[in-house]
Amino acid sequence: QVQLVESGGGLVQAGGALRLSCTASGFNFRASAMGWFRQALGKEREFVAAISWNGGRTTSGDSVKGRFTISRDNAKNTVYLQMNSLKPEDTAVFYCARSKTATIPLSLDYDYWGQGTQVTVSS
User: Fold this and answer.
1) CB atoms within 10 A of CB 55
2) In whole angstroms, what is the distance from residue 37 CA to residue 68 CA?
3) Helix, strand, coil shares of the chain as percentages rounded to 5?
4) Residue 48, CA distances (Å) to 7, 58, 59, 64 in order
5) Do 22 and 96 meet the contact criterion of CB atoms below 8 Å apart?
């Protein structure tokens, strides 16, 4: 059974940093592009970043570009999100997700999601 488990969230002051991890099981992790999304209270889910199956290509949303970096370690079945220069508006539940394809899909089509980890940035 496909399972994605996020960790690393918490409370941090504005300007600080956190690294989120997502550990996958139940499928061939190396064959899938992976993504990170977030959802703040009262708002729609927002795309954050994605990475191809071998880490050769990455992309990120405009609101986090230059501050967040996605990476992966296929030997550990884990994808990471390094978040620097955090802002209060980054406060949200962060989710990792599995892509249906090995390359980053243009449609951002994902089929499995983790339960999320809370990130709270204080001012």
Assistant:
1) 15
2) 12
3) 5, 50, 40
4) 16, 11, 9, 7
5) yes
- Which value, to the nearest 10 degrees, does the dihedral of the CA atoms of residues 115, 117, 118, 121 take? -150
Cβ atoms of residues 90 and 82 within 8 Å: no
Contact 27, 98 (CB under 8 A): yes
Buried b / exposed e over 23-39, threshold 16 CB at 10 Å, is bbeeeebeebbbbbbbe
* 48-85 residue pLDDT tens: 999 999 999 999 999 999 999 999 999 999 999 999 99
Q: In this structure, which amino acid lies at residue 35?
A: G
**Nearest to 120, CA basis, from 37, 14, 5:** 14
